[in-house]
Design goal:
Layout: H1 28-39, H2 54-66
Length: about 70
């Protein structure tokens, strides 16, 4: 798979992504979304598989807002 992403301007530039999926073993898009930033020297501060349930999604968002790394 080829990506036509431009090179990052800085390796420490912030990058935020959100992924909602149900099964981590088959989370192909989530794995890709984690791999691509890492290839550009970004870090992935947090990754969670969250069921499609509004209260669980809201909980993960709330937890991310108090996590200083995120």
């Amino acid at each position: 798979m080829s990506t036509n992403l431009p090179p990052p301007s800085r390796s420490d530039a912030p990058l935020s992504l959100a992924v909602d999926t149900r099964i981590s073993d088959s989370d192909v898009s989530g794995q890709l979304i984690q791999r691509l930033p890492k290839e550009q020297r970004h870090s992935v501060a947090s990754y969670h598989v969250v069921k499609d349930d509004p209260s669980l999604i809201q909980l993960q968002i709330a937890l991310a807002t108090i996590n200083p790394v995120v």
